[in-house]
Known about the structure:
Blueprint: H1 19-51, H2 55-59, H3 73-80, H4 86-117, H5 123-133, H6 138-151, H7 158-162, H8 169-180, H9 184-192, H10 197-205, H11 210-226, H12 229-234, H13 243-248, H14 258-288
Amino acid sequence: MPEVRESAPSSGRPRRAGRGGGVMSSTGLYIATGIAGFLFLVPFYLIIRNALSTDAEITGENWKFFPTDIQWGNIGELFTDDTVPFAQSLWNSAIVATLHTVGVLLVCSLAGYGLARIPYKHANKVFYAVLGTLMVPTAVTFVPSFVLVSSLGWVDTYRGLIIPGLFSGFTCFLFRQYFLGFPKELEEAARVDGLGYWGAYWRIVVPNSLNFFAAMATITFINGWNSFLWPLVIGQDPGSWTVQVALSNYMTNQTVVFHLIFMATAFSILPLVFVFLFLQRWLVQGIAQTGIKG
């Protein structure tokens, strides 16, 4: 007969498997996160350091962690420079980016809702046509768009800077995908109460989709604020420059004013930092709710 061996009595405690591996993985995660955070903050340090330095310290051979004599006067020089109206450029960018964001959200959300909810036999064809616009390079439509804006007399105006970019095929696509996953029961209840498509959209869909709208608003605002080529062509007068165009004027073929470039860069990124910090929670939640699953 085979020998039967008695097993040792169990202590009654569950065994913890891989405890050491879990600690090591957590430590590695913290180290990787710390390195990524450090690399992310380095450009901001360089901007602040050079913005408060002289050109000689910026381009000098002997690098210092921070300038010996902090040049607070660079701030006043930035806003009193007659050649580049930087304060007006900040104001122009704020107006253009804000109105651009509001317009894109309104137009693209309505288009996406219509493609997702309104029964129309050619809805898929329209949707594929919208996707087709994403494959057309911007350079192809740039000249015709400028000719049209110029013929309308919109050069050096907010209309010329804002209206041509009020529709985004990619934003429309994201809205459609999101609305496809939106609960239809809420809209059906609204229609029982006598609301049409517009009423259901405005009273039911929008209030229950604020996270996604906030995410799209953040992305659209950042894109509008950082836009350079179109404002450069349309804003020919210094009074209609945006902040990105103003930044480019500190670097010419003759001179490069390093300390003003970095100081202007520091002020130009402040609105983006505030917007991102304020809306980052909704940004992550909204992107997670896009429903890009077909």
